[in-house]
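Figure 2 data, in text form.
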Amino acid sequence: MKKALITGVTGQDGSYLAEFLLEKGYEVHGVIRRSSSYNQERLEDIMSADEADALVNNQNFHLHYGDVTDALNTTRLISEIQPNEIYNLAAQSHVRVSFDMPGYTLDVDAKGTLNILEAVRILGLTEKTRVYQASTSELYGKVQEVPQKETTPFYPRSPYGVAKIYGFWITKNYRESYNMFAVNGILFNHESERRGETFVTRKISLAAARIAQGKQEKLSLGNLDSLRDWGYAKDYVECMWLILQHDEPEDFVIATGEMHTVREFVELSFKHTGIEIEWTGNGVEEKGINKATGEVIVEVDPKFFRPAEVDQLLGDPTKARALLGWNPTNTSFDELVKIMVKSDMKKVEDENVIKRMFD
């Protein structure tokens, strides 16, 4: 039985990856940070009810307290677990927040990656343990060519992107210096019903559900013209695994090859709640109007603009498709939005039921 260690296991990608690997017959170990509030919601499909509030797990799934910024803790865990595969998904991954917390973002996204690689090296596991580093399309930032592929020059536009560049290059450096199987998956935007509520796509799908059910009046957003390559996170974790099963350690772009605006995401989200949006105005004066009622339900707020904007990101998944046999469009853009909105419609309905029980 192969052993896998996942950092960031409580996140969107980590929870999907844990489920995927368990289905593949792995023994899965996840690293979670100690928190005074419950932070294991995304793992509840794996854990039984009596396990959900403690580190007591099923036979093949184990949780460990830790933090990639703690080199000693990271080294100890890797030494004890002796994993065949490490998936480093731990990160401060909110681009806008990285402008407010650049130092913390550097510690987690850059030094955290180094801590894992150095632990594998000093423990003598370079022949046994394969390392996957979760890289990001934010490396490309101010894009130098369209679409972006593995050979496209980087030009990050945020502290998050800059920190991730270190993670990318230190992974490649350890691969070339110590003959490690250490690889980067350059993931373009990938979303799901498990996406955090502060990320723009989930913010949109949840607001659409709340507005449709009369629980919210407006949705405030930043740049509606931003173009992104959006895929389904559940599909992307399969590609992470495929990269580590490849014969040679290589870096891969993980993307759909399609690009859509934030405005399109808004339109589709409301469409799946039965609301048709009409747009009026331009720039900061642009507003989304409910066609049936004439009410303004979407507006632009400059406070959500980034200090340095990334206008467009479009990945080229040709290499992953050709060498790994991965299907980048297994879930279409429309299907992705529909999945997210359907989940959030149920979430809001459940909240309403609970509220009525206590009213």
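Caption note: The chain is about 40% helix and 15% strand.
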